[in-house]
């Protein structure tokens, strides 16, 4: 993604993306052998925007306006940041039970785990 792409996401969704997410996406893919499908980050502006809008529209009251979906787990559960909470944690939202679970203390830690999982799948 470019800085312009990230600005488009912010404008379309009315959010301010954290610096850690912006920095990672500016150099994505993080590994030249990464086919952009193994790691849990969506890297297409239209897909990121559409996914977030879908969650907001389909789950009002549950999917908070400050939630920003990064991508999905292998089981289809959205990974997200809670931008309104002032927390750097990465969360997942179970699409069947609607339970919210903290996946990592911060985006950097979560990204490290995702990259190691991706490498292990090759």
Would you give an account of this structure?
Helices cover 39% and strands 16% of the residues. With 122 residues, the chain is α+β, with helices and mostly antiparallel strands. It has one domain: 3-Layer(aba) Sandwich (SMI1/KNR4-like). A 4-stranded antiparallel sheet has the order 1-2-3-4. It starts with a helix and ends with a helix.
Helix content: 25-40%
Radius of gyration: 14 Å
Please give the CATH class: Alpha Beta
Extended strand count = 4
Level-2 CATH architecture: 3-Layer(aba) Sandwich
Short description:
The chain is of the alpha+beta class. It contains 4 helices and 4 strands.
How are the elements arranged and paired?
Elements: H1 3-13, H2 19-26, H3 45-58, E1 67-72, E2 78-82, E3 90-93, E4 100-104, H4 107-120
Antiparallel strand pairs: 1-2, 2-3, 3-4
Notable features of this structure?
122 residues; alpha+beta; SMI1/KNR4-like; 4-stranded antiparallel β-sheet; 4 strands; globular
């Amino acid at each position: 993604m470019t800085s312009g792409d990230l600005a488009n996401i912010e404008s379309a969704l009315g959010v301010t993306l954290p610096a850690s997410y912006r920095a990672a996406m500016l150099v994505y893919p993080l590994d030249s052998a990464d086919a952009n499908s193994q790691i849990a980050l969506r890297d297409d502006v239209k897909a990121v925007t559409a996914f977030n809008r879908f969650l907001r529209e389909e789950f009002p009251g549950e999917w908070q306006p400050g939630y920003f979906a990064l991508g999905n787990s292998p089981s289809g559960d959205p990974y997200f940041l809670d931008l309104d909470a002032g927390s750097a944690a990465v969360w997942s939202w179970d699409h069947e039970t609607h339970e919210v679970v903290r996946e990592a203390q911060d985006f950097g830690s979560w990204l490290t785990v995702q990259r190691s999982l991706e490498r292990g799948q090759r």
